[in-house]
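[Meeting: bench + compute handoff]

Bench side (C.D.) handed over the final construct sequence. Compute side (W.E.) agreed to return the predicted structure before the next meeting so the bench team could plan truncations. Sequence as handed over:
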Amino acid sequence: MSETEKSERDRLILQRLTGLWQYKSCKTLLTYVSKDIEVDTKGLISKALAEGRAVAVPKCVEGTRLEFYYISGLGDLTPGAFGVLEPDVQKCVRAADFKDSLCIVPALCYDWKGFRLGYGKGYYDRFLDTYDGFTVGIVYSSCVRRSLPHGRFDRPVDLLVTEDYIRRTAKSRRA
């Protein structure tokens, strides 16, 4: 996909995502910081901060778990594990209360039930096992499959948002 096409698809996904009542009602946005091949989340982060929402992004820590830290802007990020931008823990406060939050979950692709093909370390699955809030997968429609292999520790998202549609998943009793 060309850079122009990617930018347009990212814009459409952001527009659909920020139109959701789950986004509009959240006080805290938990989101990953995107890599070049993923749907861009930097625009989402900037928009959420400009709207007065708290934004927390993950840091990978020993033991293959995630800790989320509040950021005040993209300048609070530094290259971390796997070359992914992470919060600078010297500048940022660790998030502990996820009440009234919405979590954006990264993936290479999703299936119709909301299961994802991640990056193989299980960081998000372990986090989602204890997270009780609403989850959204953002992905290009070309990366959604009818079915993906998944195991007992895999956790589906509540909703998928692509540039073409919004899809409730098998988990989405709350959608």
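W.E. noted at the follow-up: Residues 108 and 117 are 6 Å apart (CA to CA). C.D. will use this when planning the next construct.
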